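Appendix C reproduces, verbatim, an entry submitted by the partner laboratory led by Prof. M.T., so that reviewers can inspect both the input and the predicted structure.
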Amino acid sequence: MINTEKNVGSVKALIEIEGVASAGLFGEEKMRLINETLQLVEILAKKRGIEFTLGQSAYLEKLMYTEGRNEIEQSLMEPLGIQHLKITKKLADFESMTIMKRKLLDP
């Protein structure tokens, strides 16, 4: 028998399978945790006299790439003395699906 299959290219895809209700609840809880975490880091930064430069709207852009995450660690988490808590990694984990979607849609 002759094989007639031919690979003509590849496609990037992301498939999500979940209930609409659970997705909504998860999204709300995720945003609450992210906002709460950023607020607590901001409070600590103010108490220690360190400028908090990571706004809630801009943090996702920095989390998308390793360089941005390293910048957050070096400019904010290390001076605060909380790098051992790995907050940047946890925030990136929370946003992993959003980050993957953005990277797949980038030209």
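Helices lie at 20-47, 59-63, 66-80, 87-94, 96-105. Additional entries are available on request from the coordinating office.
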